[in-house]
């Protein structure tokens, strides 16, 4: 009887019978299993597919597969007029349609070099910040579901519902607004809009505290997220991360401050970054915290905008909307701080057509997701779910 | 804690006639099969299990709804009270799908074994002084042992489905249930030590008295709260309830070991889950909270305890106590996130098991030296 290592499959006890080797007992053999997580899976937030190589519960390698929601955004843009692209941008990040429209509108306005009425700017900021809160509520709520807490999700959706009805009141649609136009707005806000927004702000302030107590301070939640999926600041920058993801790694980078647009320079707000006291910098909990704190900053911004907003007297939301958008030949890159990071549009115009020659969207989710391979190495499956949740992807924006 | 004759005879007074009837039925053995026993014990117990499912599910949906600012089911019947019946009817009509690549035998028997495992323990639960399925002298031991069969059902379901998520769920579940049985059993042993018997009916009888709740084992010794708490936490893990619902962790494993199940087989798994929820709640009430004994004390000549005791009241108290713990289970489920699989094992082996041993030793000292 002897021990042999046959073809590297661990030790095997064999015995010799005449000229033949007879296998007596094989060592326990373990092999890695390919696990297809998605496109239909409860916690891949849409149709993301992760092909994981797993050793027991440990993920040794995870490869994201994209494109299940690809709708040819960029090709569509080459075939429609500039203003007609706005509804398409809604469908990029469908949880934050206003922000996407805002980014597109400021890009084309930069190309056209037109002046926007001040009231339009303030309304834009209000609806964009409202939508940012709504988007973060979805992110926080679904993150709770990813970790098994169902109740915060419904609390978040209850509050988000109020924002959606406010935005519906202004624009006529709940998610795909087509409200922020190139050069203006589709309509002015309704007469009592500001009052109702202020009511929401006073209603929502205590709710953020409630959410904080229910989820963020929860012992099990902290255990599940603290120290998981740590991304150092330098690697995050190299990956091109932006938004709450980058700020979660401790980099104070917010386009509303660092490359200001619209009326943001006049507004007073903080850029929250984790201080490393309640969370380890760069982990899932930091990213969650940044989102939770940003909601309060957005409330501050909304309050200031309502204070500073010029009156509606003699105001026409479409006064600066160009009849026909035909920019001079040239190219432009405009970007804005979306709830999920930097959404940028690169537009090239040939100077003759009313349609862009090329329109490329730089999507924050896509860039943030690209680090998945690094983040997922050696994690457990439950941690993988926690990491995907903390990246807060919207597949509409990843696949475009 | 002396078992006097008056202690036993009082509650059993009304039960005696019933017991005589049941003795006759037990003797009914056509072709050597104890059919009478099956009829006598199984049918009412099946109904209890079914009701605990029906109203457990309805209660879960309503309670979660109220915790989440919703209404919950409102359409079927007044306040949606018939919702579960409608759901069961729907599930009955579903096509019975067995995946082509599944191991058919294991896939089919899995839910059955699971249900049997949770349901067999009902046999030794004393629902009142006059009603117990099988008055075994090792009832508690039987209940602890028989629930382990559930693991076989879960493993059969998970492996037989031939689905990777199901397999993960099954393996997690086996690890979890087998681990948590240790602190759970030791915690229950503390109760058994205080009673000096494993007979569930006797354990209950020892906790009756005119001071109501003061006779319950939970209040009989200063350390009984520790095994009580340990058993409650471990029982959550044994029945796969949040925050230990990792075998069926929806956001991780789709639905765990029952991912591939649909229709009536799914309903049976569901039934088993709610059945075992009630089962562990009943066991904790029997061992630590007096089972069918009324918690109300006599106040002077105001004989509250005597008025609220008896075979019929017993069923009421038993079911109320069971439902109270089910409510706490639901409350936890809709509040807490889920633990990770390694944190779960940490909690079991490094926290609950040592504390279970500590409480075991302390209870032994208490029982021996402080009579």
Q: What does the model show?
A:
- Chain A starts with a strand and ends with a helix.
- With 400 residues, chain A is α+β, with helices and mostly antiparallel strands.
- Chain A has helices at 73-77, 86-90, 97-112, 118-146, 151-171, 193-216, 219-225, 233-239, 243-248, 255-258, 284-308, 364-369, 372-376, 381-391, 395-399; strands at 2-5, 11-17, 20-26, 33-37, 49-55, 58-65, 180-181, 184-185, 330-338, 341-349, 358-362, 379-380.
- The longest helix of chain A is centred in the N-terminal third of the chain and has 29 residues, at 118-146.
- In chain A, helix 4 (118-146) packs antiparallel against helix 5 (151-171), helix 4 runs antiparallel to helix 14 (381-391) and helix 5 (151-171) runs antiparallel to helix 6 (193-216).
- In chain A, the strands form four sheets. In chain A, strands 4-5-6-12 form a four-stranded antiparallel β-sheet. In chain A, strands 1-2-3 form a three-stranded antiparallel β-sheet, with no helix packed on it.
- With 371 residues, chain B is an all-alpha fold.
- Chain B has one domain.
- Chain B is 66% helix and 1% strand.
- Chain B contains 15 helices and two strands.
- Chain B has a two-stranded antiparallel ribbon.
- In chain B, strand 1 (126-128) and strand 2 form a beta hairpin.
- In chain B, helix 1 packs across helix 2, helix 7 runs antiparallel to helix 10 and helix 10 (225-238) packs antiparallel against helix 12.
- The longest helix of chain B has 33 residues, at 35-67.
- Classes of the chains: A alpha+beta (400), B mainly alpha (371).
């Amino acid at each position: 009887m002897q021990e042999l290592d046959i073809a590297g499959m661990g030790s095997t006890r064999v015995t010799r019978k005449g000229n033949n080797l007879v296998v007596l007992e094989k060592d326990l053999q373990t092999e890695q299993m390919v696990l297809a997580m998605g496109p239909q899976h409860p916690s891949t937030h849409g149709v993301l597919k992760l092909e994981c190589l797993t050793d027991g519960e440990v993920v040794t390698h995870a490869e994201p597969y994209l494109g299940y929601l690809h709708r040819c955004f960029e090709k569509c843009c080459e075939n429609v007029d500039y203003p007609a692209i706005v509804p398409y941008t809604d469908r990029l990040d469908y949880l934050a349609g206003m922000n996407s429209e805002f980014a597109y509108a400021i890009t084309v306005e930069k190309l056209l070099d037109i002046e926007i009425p001040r009231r339009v700017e303030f309304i834009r900021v209000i609806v964009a910040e409202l939508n940012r809160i709504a988007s973060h509520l979805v992110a926080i709520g679904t993150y709770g579901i990813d970790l098994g807490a169902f109740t915060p999700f419904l609390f978040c959706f209850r509050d988000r519902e109020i924002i959606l009805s406010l935005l519906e009141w202004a624009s006529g649609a709940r998610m795909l607004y087509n409200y922020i136009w190139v050069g203006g707005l589709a309509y002015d806000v309704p007469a009592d809009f500001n009052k109702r927004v202020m009511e929401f702000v006073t209603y929502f302030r205590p709710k953020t505290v409630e959410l904080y107590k229910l989820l963020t301070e929860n012992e099990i939640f902290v255990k599940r997220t603290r120290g998981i999926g740590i991304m150092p600041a330098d690697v995050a920058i190299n990956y091109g991360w932006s938004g709450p993801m980058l700020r979660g790694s401790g980099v104070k980078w917010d386009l509303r401050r660092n490359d200001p647009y619209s009326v943001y320079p006049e507004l007073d707000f903080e850029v929250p970054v984790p201080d490393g006291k309640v969370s380890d910098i760069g982990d899932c909990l930091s990213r969650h915290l940044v989102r939770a704190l940003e909601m309060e900053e957005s409330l501050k911004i909304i309050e200031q905008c309502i204070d500073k907003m010029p009156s509606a007297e003699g105001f026409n939301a479409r006064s600066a909307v160009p009849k026909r958008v035909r920019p001079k030949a040239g190219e432009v890159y405009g970007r804005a701080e979306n709830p999920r990071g930097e959404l940028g549009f690169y537009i090239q115009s040939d100077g003759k057509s009313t349609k862009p020659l090329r329109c490329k969207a730089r999507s924050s989710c896509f860039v943030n997701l690209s680090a998945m391979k690094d983040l997922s190495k050696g994690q457990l499956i439950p941690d993988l779910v926690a990491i995907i949740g903390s990246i807060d992807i919207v597949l509409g924006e990843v696949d475009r | 804690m002396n078992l006097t004759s008056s202690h036993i005879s009082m509650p059993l007074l009304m039960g005696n006639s019933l017991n005589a009837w049941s003795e006759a039925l037990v003797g009914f053995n056509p072709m050597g099969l104890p059919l009478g026993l099956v009829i006598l014990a199984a049918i009412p117990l099946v109904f209890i299990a079914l009701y605990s499912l029906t109203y457990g599910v309805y209660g879960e949906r309503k309670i979660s709804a109220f915790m989440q600012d919703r209404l919950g089911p409102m359409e079927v019947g007044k306040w949606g009270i018939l919702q579960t019946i409608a759901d069961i009817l729907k599930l009955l009509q579903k096509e019975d799908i067995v995946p082509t690549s599944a191991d058919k035998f294991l896939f089919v028997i899995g839910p059955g074994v699971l249900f049997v495992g949770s349901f067999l323990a009902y046999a030794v639960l004393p629902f009142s002084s006059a009603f117990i399925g099988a008055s075994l002298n090792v009832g508690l031991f039987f209940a602890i042992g028989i629930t382990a069969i559930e693991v076989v059902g879960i493993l059969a379901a998970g492996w037989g489905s031939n689905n990777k998520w199901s397999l993960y769920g099954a393996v997690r579940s086996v690890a979890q249930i087998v681990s948590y049985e240790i602190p759970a059993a030791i915690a229950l042993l503390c109760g058994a030590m205080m009673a000096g018997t494993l007979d569930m009916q006797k354990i209950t009888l020892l906790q009756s008295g005119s001071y109501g709740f003061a006779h319950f084992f939970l209040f009989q010794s200063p350390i009984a709260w520790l095994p009580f708490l340990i058993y409650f936490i471990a029982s959550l893990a044994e029945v796969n309830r949040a925050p230990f619902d990792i075998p069926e962790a929806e956001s991780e494993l789709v639905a765990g070991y029952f991912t591939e199940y649909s229709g009536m087989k799914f309903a049976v798994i569901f039934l088993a889950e709610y059945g075992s929820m009630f089962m562990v709640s009943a066991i904790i009430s029997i061992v630590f909270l007096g089972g069918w004994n009324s918690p109300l004390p006599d106040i002077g000549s105001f004989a509250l305890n005597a008025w609220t005791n008896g075979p019929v009241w017993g069923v009421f108290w038993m079911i109320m106590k069971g439902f109270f713990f089910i409510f706490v289970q639901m409350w936890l489920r809709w509040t807490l996130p889920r633990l990770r699989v390694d944190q779960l094992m940490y909690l079991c082996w490094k926290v609950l098991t040592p504390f279970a041993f500590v409480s075991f030793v302390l209870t032994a000292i208490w029982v021996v030296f402080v009579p």
